[in-house]
Amino acid sequence: MAAGNQWNHVPGKLNPADKGTRGLTADQLASDSVWWSGPEFLVPQHNEWPSRQITVPKELPGMVKRAQVMAFAVQQVSAEVFRLHPDNYSSWKRLIRLMAWCYRFINRCRRRHASTRGDPEAASTAVDSVELKSEELQRTECHWYAIAQAESYPAPYWQLTSGKSLAVNDPLLRLNPVLDKDYPCVLRVGGRLKTASHLPVHTRHPIILPQHHRITQLIVDAEDRKCDHSVGPNHLLANLMLGFWITRGKVVTRSHCAHCVLCKKKWATVALQQIAPLPLFRTAPPYRAFSRVGVDYAGPFRTKQGRGKTQLKRYLCVFSCLQS
Ligand SMILES: [Zn+2]
Q1: What tens digit of pLDDT does each residue of 32-72 get?
Q2: Number of H helices, E strands in the chain
Q3: Has residue 320 been placed in a domain?
C-alpha cells in the first residue's frame, strides 16, 4: 500500500486519461504527444519530477465533529463481597462457622504481629481451641446482624451508634431501639420489659432484623430447618420472636413457607379418592332396620367380677345396621 507521500498530482491538461474521455477526433488523437507519451515531466528520472505538496486541511468546511462520551462505572468491591457475601450461602450455620474461622485466623495473625513488635499485652499467649467457641460464633452472628441493620437502616443506624437520637418520623422510632451492651454495634428493641430481669436479654430486647435482607432469610430458614419444616408460618414466627424482631415478620415467614419445597410437601393436602358406590345389598329392599347387619367382633377384654378377685374374659360383638 502506498503511503500518502508517494502520491503526486497530475494536472487535468497533462493527464492522458482525460484525452480519451473528451471526444477527440482520430487525427487530433494521432498527433497528441500527451496521449502517446504521457506528460513531459515524467520523462526525466523519478527524483527530478516536480514535487507538489498536497496539504489536506484537518478541518474541512461543514465538517461536524461528533462528540463521544465514554463513561466508566467503577464499583468498589471488597474481597469480602465475593467470598463471604450472604448471597453466596444457603445455610446460616455454614456462613457463621466459615466467618468465625476467618475471624480466628485474623486474630491469630494480629497476635503474631503483636508478638513480633514486642507488645506483651496485644500478644496474648492464649492457645485457640480445636473447635470454635460459642463466644466466637456469637460474635460472628452479631457481626452479621450489625451489617444487616446498617445496610437496611443506614441513617438511623449511624445516628444511634454515634450517640444521636432518631428523627421524629423515623420508622424505627416506635421500636425504641437500643444498643446491645456486649456488642454495641447491634440494635435491639427497647420495649417495655426492661425491668423483667427474670427473662433472658434476647427475649426482653430482641434483635431488630430488616424484612428484605438476606441475613433475615437465612435466619428464618435456619429456624425452619430446626423445626423440621413441620410448623406453619405462625409457629415459625413465634419461635423467631424469642430472639428477633423481624419487621413485617408475618409476611416474611409466610413468604418463606410458601417458597420452601419441604414445607410445601409436608403441608400438602392429602388427595381425596373417589369412594365406591354402595353395594346392592345395602340399597335393595327390605328397608327394615337391622334386616341386614354388619358385625364387628373384638376381645378378649379382662373384666373383674365380684370383689375383683376373679377376672373373666369378655368379648365384644357390634351389630351395625346396613340400611340406615
Ligand atoms: Zn420449610
Answers
A1: 888 888 888 888 777 777 776 667 677 777 777 776 665 55
A2: 13, 6
A3: yes
